[in-house]
Amino acid sequence: MSVTLADVAARAGVSAATVSRVLNGNYPVAGSTRSRVLRAVDELEYVVNGPASALAAATSDLVGVLVNDIADPFFGVMASAIQSQIGPAGDHDAEAPHGQKMAIICNTGGSPERELTYLTLLLRQRAAAVVLTGGTVEDPDHLGALATRLRRLEAGGTRVVLCGRQPLTAATDGAAPGGAHGPVPGPEEDPGPAPVALTFDNFGGARRLTGHLLDLGHRRIGYLAGPAARTTTRQRLDGHRAALAAAGAAGGEAGTPEAERLTVHGGYDRASGYDGALELLRREPGLTAVVAANDTVALGACAALRERALRIPEDISVAGFDDLPFAIDAAPALTTVRIPLHEAGARAGRLALGREEAPAGRTATLPADLMVRASTAPPRP
Amino acid sequence: MSVTLADVAARAGVSAATVSRVLNGNYPVAGSTRSRVLRAVDELEYVVNGPASALAAATSDLVGVLVNDIADPFFGVMASAIQSQIGPAGDHDAEAPHGQKMAIICNTGGSPERELTYLTLLLRQRAAAVVLTGGTVEDPDHLGALATRLRRLEAGGTRVVLCGRQPLTAATDGAAPGGAHGPVPGPEEDPGPAPVALTFDNFGGARRLTGHLLDLGHRRIGYLAGPAARTTTRQRLDGHRAALAAAGAAGGEAGTPEAERLTVHGGYDRASGYDGALELLRREPGLTAVVAANDTVALGACAALRERALRIPEDISVAGFDDLPFAIDAAPALTTVRIPLHEAGARAGRLALGREEAPAGRTATLPADLMVRASTAPPRP
DNA sequence: CGTCCTGTAGAAAGCGCTTACTAACCGCGC
DNA sequence: GCGCGGTTAGTAAGCGCTTTCTACAGGACG
């Protein structure tokens, strides 16, 4: 510590400016000078003072990544992919090049307030970019506050990328399958260009998944939804109901008692699946299938059903969503919908760094493919 | 952006110094002045310039967290717990208090080089603290470089905490069950105080786990080890062999052909478990139990065994390690060893912030409790 | 009534770096 | 021999904040 640019300069017999230029490589420096400086840097084990250079250059090497829950592999996988694009690349060299970015992963716990707090903190750090992952609360107040923060970030030169989330207010648009909306202005104020967004086809995936169950012959299908008023939850639920409605099956029409009865809202955790499955069974003992908001919930549901001595899939089918790594290893292997988390994260990371062109319309929707495995089968006659 | 302290000062009719003092609350300011300043801050939507204040105050709000693989719940859970102590607390308020810390989660991918790179980057940022999670490579060169980096960090005022890792060179000490070593000086140079460390009782947990299988009557037990030359891998393997040796069972003596034959090294991922189980079966068709380096590997092994038409636990027992959330939902529920990841992370976070006293001897070993579930049973006669 | 605290606020000197702007030097053509 | 572009290096002015030191009230006190 306390070895400064000036020390290096003195040792190399040049001015501080020259050292800075060698290190940043953004100005012609004679070869001999350059190597003299580099040697001094090495001998003194000089490490730049990040804050100082961020202040002087008015840019920082920090990239913020907001996630709901880093302990959840859904976010873990995305975060890992994002970081793989941002952090140090190969392992060939322990030296950290100048201008090397670092990701700050912020755990919001799904709390809108904390999300805003983190955005303020990132603004304070003058982050180079911010990636918001996963769905969000559909509360207009929150969305408004969010839009304001993001606008301020962008005004300050921070690149904003949404990964797995609708472009802001478009989130309240109902369940549009395609998802490719244009920018929608927030309340008052100039919206500026909408942040670039990568969204998942939750609606389409859910519709195909429930369609698969309907094709197998299921008609009494329970749904374990995630927390209410969140975009991801609603898109998946809407897809599910759209499939039911198209087949004229029970629960297809939102708001009807039938639909309410076959839907239980909970969290995205295992316990919600466990409790929710029991509740569904209580409400509708004749259930032949359960669709969960995600794989974790599905696993919890499986546990509950097994305790009730129901065999999967002989007595009851179960399906998840996301295709997290453990889905294929469940017994029986879980039928689910694959979300390209890794691809999405990697692409978001590149977009955040400006290393990839923004998609046309500033929004791209990634596919959600049905993965049929062993946890779903035709209902018993 | 571009609203500076001076702007706020002008608006409030005070000097910049006063505004700084109000914001930092570390100097007496008259109530009336204080509220005038706060109003100005509010009206101007002023946000401190983090780099500038870090430079002037020579401290930063950044805390580095190094993990091997953030997509792995083992690290995800710890990272989440660490952050819960460091990041914004309640959701009562969207305002970010001054001095609010942020965690930078760095994904090393298990690469020693990348670990060093990140440490340099953190040094550059003048991080307030650094938490290194999980085991490490046992290569003396790497350990030396690591010790040097950590010493430099500590010299610069960065607090260093190890979470789930032996205090540096103690890592090469053989499999000491207690783990409470004193500081061991690195090669040359003054060691200074060893970083505070929270370690897991991998050895003891593994020994109890294998002991459980032996008690059930198993004698031909295969072991799916993690990557060679990593502390966690070796401690668990050593514990396993210690239990075997104590019972006089096959494979208890390291280095013997028997021990080698019953051990397969791989990664900590699902595929390694799958491949490894098949390999074990090939080497020893009479296997009655498989112990895996962690739960993820165990799940992969289960998949492979099931494909070979072996029933768990009737035909073959399987055990994991860590007790990750999904272990209890495996079918059958996985017998494993519970590692208090959340508690460890939370405590490490508090230690990093200096909000908790370092344990006596600067090292505390956390218990690893055996969780007997349904995937283990007596072998068939 | 002058002095000495105590409580508040301002002036100003950096923190370590970047980056115009300026200066020196070189070889060149006229 | 002199002025001139082209290189390469140095000078110095900040970047926006913290913090020491100084200044100035207004009581309390002798």
From TrEMBL, chains A, B:
<dbReference type="GO" id="GO:0000976">
    <property type="term" value="F:transcription cis-regulatory region binding"/>
</dbReference>
<dbReference type="Pfam" id="PF00356">
    <property type="entry name" value="LacI"/>
</dbReference>
<dbReference type="InterPro" id="IPR046335">
    <property type="entry name" value="LacI/GalR-like_sensor"/>
</dbReference>
<dbReference type="GO" id="GO:0003700">
    <property type="term" value="F:DNA-binding transcription factor activity"/>
</dbReference>
<dbReference type="InterPro" id="IPR028082">
    <property type="entry name" value="Peripla_BP_I"/>
</dbReference>
<keyword id="KW-0804">Transcription</keyword>
<protein>
    <submittedName>
        <fullName>LacI family transcriptional regulator</fullName>
    </submittedName>
</protein>
<dbReference type="InterPro" id="IPR000843">
    <property type="entry name" value="HTH_LacI"/>
</dbReference>
<keyword id="KW-0238">DNA-binding</keyword>
<feature type="region of interest" description="Disordered">
    <location>
        <begin position="172"/>
        <end position="191"/>
    </location>
</feature>
<feature type="domain" description="HTH lacI-type">
    <location>
        <begin position="3"/>
        <end position="57"/>
    </location>
</feature>
<dbReference type="Pfam" id="PF13377">
    <property type="entry name" value="Peripla_BP_3"/>
</dbReference>
<keyword id="KW-0805">Transcription regulation</keyword>
<dbReference type="InterPro" id="IPR010982">
    <property type="entry name" value="Lambda_DNA-bd_dom_sf"/>
</dbReference>
